[in-house]
What does this fold into?
Amino acid sequence: MLLKVNGKEYDVEVEEWKSLLEVLREELGFTGVKTGCEEGECGACTVLVDGKAVNSCLMLVRQAEGKEITTIEGLSGEDGSLHPLQAAFVEHFAVQCGFCTPGVLLSAKALLDENPHPTEEEVREALGGNLCRCTGYVKIVEAVLAASEKAITS
It folds into this structure.
C-alpha cells in the first residue's frame, strides 16, 4: 500500500483493517500523532487528509491510500522553522502540556485554509472536536485569530 505523508511516499505492508493512526505511529514513526481516546472524541490523533481535518483513529489506512496526509511533523518548514500557526501558539502562550497541540494546530490549519479570516465563534466551532485538559481554550483561540489576522494559511 502506498501512503503519501508530508509530501513523501511510503510503501507499507500492513493489514488494511488497521487505523491510519496505528500505521502513522507504529509503522512510519510519526509520533506527533497522538493516541488519545481511540473513539474520535478527543482530537489528539487529528491529521489532515487532502487538507481536511480527520480523526486518524477512525480512518482505516486503506481509506487514506492515494491521498495527501499531513501530520504535525509536516507542518514546519523543511529547515525546521515553525509554521506561522505554531509561532502564534508560542507567542500567545497557547501550549500547556502539549498533548493536544498537534491535533489543535492541524484543525486550525484546516480552518484557516478554508476560511482565512474566521470569527471567534468559527474558530471555537472548528476546534470543538479537540479536547484540551490544561486550558480554557482562550489562548488557543487567541493564537488562531492572531494567525488569521496575518492572513497565514500555508
